[in-house]
Specification:
Strand content: 5-15%
Order of helices and strands: HHHEHHHE
Number of domains: 1
Strand order of the largest sheet: 1-2
Number of strands: 2
Radius of gyration: 17 Å
Mean pLDDT: 90
Shape: elongated
Length: 132
């Protein structure tokens, strides 16, 4: 269910993460290989920023979920079932990289933990709950 929700979010963010670099590249001449490297780094940084802002804003909003989780009837909450702050949502987002970096074990933890929490959920003090 969570994987399907993530796929929906990938589709939602496909347009801005492709459109913004396309528009920037169309007005920015690339003369050297160094400029190409700098532009590629800028593209990656922009994509990272869009994902972070989208994730943190949506998880800390009254929806408590990105569009994909919302469509699947899921939401992110603290241990008391309450909405999390923008800062906690940001921490959860950055901790998700650690979950993936550990050979995906941090994500696979969902299968054997009591409340189906990934490593980034533990680190942020959050759970994925069903919408009310």
């Amino acid at each position: 269910m969570r994987l399907g929700a993530h796929c929906v979010d990938c589709v939602v963010l496909l347009l801005p993460t492709l459109l913004i670099p396309f528009l920037y590249h169309s007005v920015t001449p690339v003369a050297t290989q160094l400029n190409q490297v700098i532009l590629a780094f800028g593209d990656a940084l922009m994509s990272f920023g869009v994902w972070w802002a989208y994730t943190a804003a949506m998880l800390s909003s009254p929806w408590q979920a990105r569009v994909g989780k919302r469509m699947c009837g899921l939401r992110i909450a603290d241990y008391d079932g309450k909405r999390i702050s923008f800062g906690r949502a940001s921490g959860r987002y950055f901790a998700s990289f650690l979950s993936g970096a550990l050979l995906g074990i941090g994500i696979l933890m969902i299968a054997w933990t009591r409340h189906r929490q990934a490593l980034h959920d533990f680190l942020a003090g959050t759970v994925v709950a069903t919408s009310e």
